[in-house]
Amino acid sequence: MVTFAGTLETSGGNATGVAVPEDVWHQLTPARRAAVTVTLGAATYRSSVGFYKGAYMLPVSAANRAAAGVAAGDTVDITLELDTAPREVEVPPALAAAFETEPAAQAGWASLPPGQQKAHATSITDAKTDATRDKRVAKVVLELHQRQARG
Asked: Does 88 map to a domain?
């Protein structure tokens, strides 16, 4: 576990993150990318740190900034701990139903990294209408079929 002070930086749009000093990162791991548990203020969440444009970067989503009560430009204390627990994403019921008739799509889902699974799952569960949800399920199933076809 490592703790450091960093500044929340924006890189255009809503993208916000913190540069993790290289010496701090290497106290935690020699890897260029790793899953971590982040404690930022009173908020604790799972994320990953990756090497991006010459620096180790920790993304901080709008939801995590709100939970921690921080904003871009703030200097914050952050604690990182390697996260070795399995990352499993709950399949939304509508997508699970589609998988019953689309085994290739289910295989494609299984091959996705957790972050991509989560993005797809969130897009489906955040749909405000059944029609939107169904359209998003169809889009995900198509993308998963294409992924399987590419091998």
From this structure: no
